[in-house]
Amino acid sequence: MPIEIPTDLTPELVPLSWLIGEWEGSGRLGSGDEDSEHFLQHVSFTHNGLPYLQYRAESWLTDDDGTRLRPLTVETGFWALERKQLDADGGPGLIPADIVPALKSADEVEALRNKDGGFDISVSISHPGGISELYYGQIKGPQIQLTTDMVMRGSHSKDYSAATRIFGLVDGNLLWRWDVATGGTSQPGKGLEAHASAFLKKVS
């Protein structure tokens, strides 16, 4: 299935462009074994002309047939190529970006390619319950690997210390897996257990 690249993207979003749109499908909590609970998820990746994607994922518990039972959670965040912020970039706060983007051409974006042939990315995701994650990772074609660099928890948040996520585009469908550490482990990649996985189809 060919990937259509919107014509109004800032150049540095082109490597992320296959994510843009609305996705919906089903998944399983935990390791996905026979006793794992089912959920439905709707995910959106949108852009507003600035060099990041806005992310939102809303999920509902379902029965075995896919009928919604009750809300599960919502998470929101931002996805971008990982690079030094320049004077032309917006922020912090409401400081506006220049009209001309910081990276103006495909050649400037290509210069960010890492030694593995992909692009380093950063992803920030916020959850209910006072938890926010900062991931670093890589996007290489239609594959993404992310590992938490930091998990920020509120004073009354549940224990949650690290996570990894992987995403892949397979035959036009978005597949993902999320592993987490909740036992006091603070080292990314250590003590991780299967948390959830899903298979999403593009709906718009």
From TrEMBL:
Pathway: Nitrogen metabolism. This is Peroxynitrite isomerase. Belongs to the nitrobindin family. Binds 1 heme b group per subunit, that coordinates a highly solvent-exposed Fe(III) atom. A motif (GXWXGXG) lies at residues 21-27. It catalyses: peroxynitrite = nitrate. Forms a 10-stranded antiparallel beta-barrel structure able to accommodate a hydrophobic ligand in its interior. In fact, this fold hosts the heme group, which is located in a wide surface cleft. Its EC number is 5.99.-.-. Heme b binds at residues 158, 195. GO terms for molecular function: heme binding; metal ion binding; peroxynitrite isomerase activity. It holds the Pfam family THAP4_heme-bd. Transmembrane segments: none annotated. Its cofactor is heme b. InterPro entries: Calycin (IPR012674), Nb(III)_bact/plant (IPR022939), Nitrobindin (IPR045165), THAP4-like_heme-bd (IPR014878). Residues 12-202 form the THAP4-like heme-binding domain. Keywords: Heme, Iron, Isomerase, Metal-binding. Heme-binding protein able to scavenge peroxynitrite and to protect free L-tyrosine against peroxynitrite-mediated nitration, by acting as a peroxynitrite isomerase that converts peroxynitrite to nitrate. Therefore, this protein likely plays a role in peroxynitrite sensing and in the detoxification of reactive nitrogen and oxygen species (RNS and ROS, respectively). Is able to bind nitric oxide (NO) in vitro, but may act as a sensor of peroxynitrite levels in vivo. HAMAP family: nitrobindin. It is an enzyme of class 5 (isomerase).
